[in-house]
Every structure is written in structure tokens, then in C-alpha cells.
Specification:
This protein has helices at residues 19-26, 35-44, 61-68, 79-87, 108-117, 126-135, 173-182, 200-217, 243-261, 273-276, 309-313, 411-414, and strands spanning 13-14, 17-18, 30-34, 50-54, 73-76, 99-103, 120-123, 140-146, 168-169, 186-191, 223-225, 266-269, 280-292, 295-300, 319-322, 332-338, 350-351, 355-356, 359-362, 369-372, 393-398, 401-406. It is an alpha/beta fold. It has 12 helices and 22 strands. Helices cover 27% and strands 24% of the residues.
Length: 423
């Protein structure tokens, strides 16, 4: 069922745990993840044969372990993500493949690992077919196809069309099949993902393109992937995705292929943001409040080094206030929320293109906390040490119990791999 989203501008708890207690125990800024919300999203996708989590969205080992224990497999887009998956308990191979390497190129270490561990590969370029074919590595592969069109809430999240680097161009499918055959590789899977924020008009186009590509590949196919990009609501009134309808469109495509090929075809879904975004919260403390002409600024101790989506995409995140004194009855005012970095772009309330805007939030005091919500996808994983700021802590909430799953980085950690050369 797709329901309209509601968000409050006052928040006292996350998953039954006091925000004030979380801030006191773990300090700020801190990422907090509600494990139950991730499990809710997994359950919503059970209609699909395989749920393959795009771990790049939120790759803490505790999150990977959580999804693994609930029957979810993963993809990996780097050698480091293969390493993470193994550290979280995923086997290297099986049916379906517990880990799939999905990329547009092999760096040397990734190719070495794919070969050594016999990792299934979702190939995004002809050169990958050539390199894998010559390596003596895995013989079954999937192909990621760029159907010639894309869709995204930002141009930077559009992963289809001729301006995207992702996938094998649809007109080169037959030549890539010939190349695979030349190297003794069998194409057993197809993957198609055109970007974030799907709607059903674009979905119908994707399914049509998938079916056409699948018929070109033929009956060696045993799996098709619907990709990811499933949207979540970030603003009040935005509707959640109708997962039942989404599945029905893909399932109809799959069933036509089953009828043509005469054998089962597995249907995968590849959520990243959909599983983790709404589970994540970034708790940050207001450290200064000041007027700049007509604007009131709440300046907090988290910056775009902690959450880059607003500065990268102009992304909107719900923001709520947690009053330190417990007074929940406060008038609202338009404010700009900014961070501590020595950068004018360090603003959480901005639109794409860097245009600063205001947000209606309760009147606050220095020492109150802001909770930046829907921050569990492409939040911590895109964090940096810009301005030599340590990475935030991460906390997992389950059954009203808070457990730290990443220690806060120290200043000593910042320079631990640096050296001043001896004279």
C-alpha cells in the first residue's frame, strides 16, 4: 500500500530510544540506524525471488550482517565491498550468488579477487568480458545493459542513456554476446537499472527493453534483475512506492520469458536506498545561532563531510528538533541549517545548484539537537575527512537497545597513515 509520508519537526526518540540519551552516550555527530525499519523494507520485497542489497548505500558490517541473517544477498562494486561482504559472513559463491561484482571496469585487485574467489560478475563493458575471458576466472556472467534512456531525481543519479557511463550500450549487446562466446563465457543473467526515483511509465519502458534484450540473449538466461532506484518519500505528502504493482509489472515480463525459454527465470530486485534510507538518522548539536540579514542560521556540528547528499544533489532531508530542556511547545521560524566547514556550500537546506533555502523549524537554543532524517543511504558511506574532521560514530538500534557499530574516529586516526619523510 502506498501511503503519504508524514514528518514531525519535533523528535524526542528514535525507535523507542531517547535522542537525548543517544546524544549523551555517543556524542555528536552520530549516525543512528533503526534495524526494525530495514527488516520492514525487506519483508515488503519478499515477492521477488532474490533481494540483492546494494551495499554501497550503507555498508557497515552490522547492517550487512543484519540483512544476511534475513535472507538478503549483496552486490559489490569494488574489491573493498567484496572484502566487507566476506567479513559480514557472506559466502563467495552459491545459488543465487551471495555476492555479485557489479562494475563498468575491473581494477587489478578486483579482477584478482573475482578470479580467486569465483565471484559472479555483472559485466558493464566489453573490456570486462575480454579481461575476464582471458583470466580463466568464472565462466557464467551477467550483463548490465544501458537501454539508451534513463531517469533520476538528479542528473547525477541518472544511470541510463548516452551521458551515463554505466552498462553495455544496448546496440552493442550482440557483439558482446559474440565476444563472450569467443572466450567461453555463458551469459546467464541480465541487469537493467536506469537511475533513482522510478515511476511506472519509465518502468514499463525498462521492462520492454529488458524483454527485448533477453530475447536476443536467449535461453541461457536463468535470471533477470530489476535493478534498484526504488524511491522513498522525503517530503510530507509524498507517497511511498506501490511495491505490489511494481512487482506485477516485472513479474509479467519474467513470465513471458519463462514461457519463451521453457525453464524458470529468477527475478531479482536490487534495493540500496529503499532498505536503509528511512532507517538512518544523523544526530547533530546546534553550536551557534546567528542572523545574517533576513536569514536565521542554525549552525550544527555535522557538515557535508558527514552528509554530502544536499551539496552533491540538492537533496532534501526532513529535519527535526530535539530540545535539550524537554520543552516541546515552541513556535516555528524559517531557518537555514549549516555546518562547521570552511565552505559556503556547507548547508543542509539547499536546492540543486547550491541555492540556499530556508526550512520551517521550531525556535531553538544553542545546545539543542537537530535530527537529520532519512539519512541511512549514501550518508556515512560518502563521508570524508575534509577540514580534518573525524568520521562520525555509527549506532544500531534493535529492540530498544543501542549498540555502537563504529567507533568515532579520533584525531590520531586522521594522521595514522601519514609520514613526514626522514632527512
Amino acid at each position: 500500500m502506498n501511503q503519504a509520508a508524514t514528518f514531525s519537526t519535533i523528535r524526542t526518540e528514535i525507535a523507542g530510544v531517547s535522542v537525548l540519551d543517544l546524544a549523551s552516550t555517543f556524542e555528536t555527530p552520530t549516525y543512528v540506524y533503526d534495524g526494525s525499519k530495514i527488516l520492514e523494507r525487506i519483508d515488503e520485497l519478499r515477492q521477488f525471488d532474490v533481494i540483492r542489497y546494494a551495499q554501497k548505500a550503507c555498508s557497515n558490517l552490522a547492517i550487512l550482517d543484519l540483512v544476511r541473517r534475513h535472507g538478503v544477498v549483496v552486490d559489490a562494486v569494488s574489491n573493498g565491498e567484496i572484502y566487507r561482504a566476506q567479513a559480514a559472513g557472506f559466502a563467495a559463491n552459491g545459488t543465487p550468488p551471495p555476492v555479485v561484482f557489479c562494475a563498468d571496469l575491473f581494477d587489478r585487485k578486483a579482477l584478482e579477487q573475482v578470479i580467486a574467489l569465483d565471484i559472479h560478475v555483472n559485466v558493464g563493458s566489453a573490456d570486462m568480458i575480454e579481461q575476464l575471458g582471458k583470466s580463466g576466472g568464472p565462466r557464467n556472467i551477467s550483463l548490465r545493459i544501458n537501454p539508451g534512456f534513463g531517469h533520476g531525481h538528479s542528473q547525477k543519479t541518472n544511470t541510463g542513456g548516452e551521458q551515463s557511463k554505466h552498462g553495455i550500450w544496448h546496440e552493442e549487446l550482440e557483439s558482446c554476446l559474440a565476444l563472450a562466446q569467443q572466450h567461453g563465457l555463458t551469459v546467464t543473467g541480465l541487469h537493467m537499472h536506469i537511475g533513482s526515483g522510478s515511476d511506472f511509465e519509465h518502468l514499463a519502458q525498462v521492462c520492454g527493453a529488458m524483454e527485448r534484450s533477453a530475447r536476443i540473449v536467449g535461453s541461457s538466461l536463468t535470471s533477470i534483475s530489476a535493478g534498484g532506484g526504488l524511491p522513498i518519500p522525503y517530503r510530507v505528502g509524498e507517497a511511498s512506492l506501490d511495491i505490489g504493482r511494481y512487482f506485477e509489472v516485472w513479474n509479467a515480463t519474467r513470465n513471458r520469458l519463462v514461457e519463451s525459454f521453457g525453464h524458470p527465470v529468477s527475478l531479482e530486485i536490487e534495493p540500496g536506498r529503499y532498505l536503509s534510507a528511512e532507517a538512518g538518522y544523523l544526530i547533530t548539536e546546534i553550536r551557534a545561532i546567528k542572523k545574517m540579514g533576513a536569514n536565521t542560521f542554525y549552525l550544527v556540528d555535522a557538515g557535508f563531510n558527514d552528509l554530502a547528499r544536499p551539496i552533491m544533489y540538492g537533496a532534501y532531508h526532513p529535519i527535526s528538533l530535539t530540545p535539550r530542556d524537554g520543552n516541546l511547545t515552541r513556535p516555528s521560524q524559517p531557518v537555514v541549517v549549516g555546518g562547521p566547514l570552511c565552505e559556503s556550500g556547507d548547508i543542509f537546506t539547499q536546492e540543486e545548484g547550491g541555492f540556499v533555502c530556508t526550512r520551517e523549524l521550531p525556535v531553538a537554543n544553542v545546545g539543542d539537537f537537530l535530527v537529520i532524517e532519512c539519512a541511512g543511504a549514501y550518508g556515512f558511506v560518502m563521508a570524508s575527512n575534509y577540514n580534518s574532521r573525524p568520521l562520525a560514530a555509527e549506532v544500531l538500534l534493535q529492540d530498544q537497545r543501542a549498540r555502537q557499530v563504529r567507533n568515532r574516529q579520533s584525531e590520531a586516526d586522521l594522521i595514522s597513515h601519514e609520514r613526514i619523510p626522514a632527512d
